[in-house]
Design brief:
This protein has 95 residues and is mostly helical. It is 36% helix and 4% strand.
């Protein structure tokens, strides 16, 4: 796949990046270089390779999935500028 100057201009416009006309050839070249790297990655055989979460093999920490209310209502409401009857009080925004 090759990117020409008009496609580079379109990508820049979609990304809301202002690119001068004289900079479009360099931008198209950079896009083509990036696409070349991606094509190289597609050539790598990854058949049978397990996905990893880290470079060192380790097991993720797990905890029991228990639904609770947190039991910290007073602690959380202590940070609120205005709290009434156990809830955050906010200004009325709809008449």
């Amino acid at each position: 796949m090759s990117i020409d100057q008009s496609t580079a201009a379109k990508v820049a416009k979609l990304a809301r990046i202002k690119v001068e006309d004289d900079a479009l050839p360099a931008l198209a070249s950079e896009f083509n270089t990036i696409l070349g790297f991606i094509e190289q990655l597609n050539e790598v055989d990854v058949e049978g390779v397990e996905p990893m979460v880290s470079v060192t093999p380790m097991r993720l920490k797990r905890r029991e999935d228990v639904v609770t209310d947190g039991n910290m209502q007073d602690k959380i409401l202590s940070n609120a500028p205005d709290a009434r009857e156990g809830f955050f009080a906010v200004p009325k925004v709809v008449e």
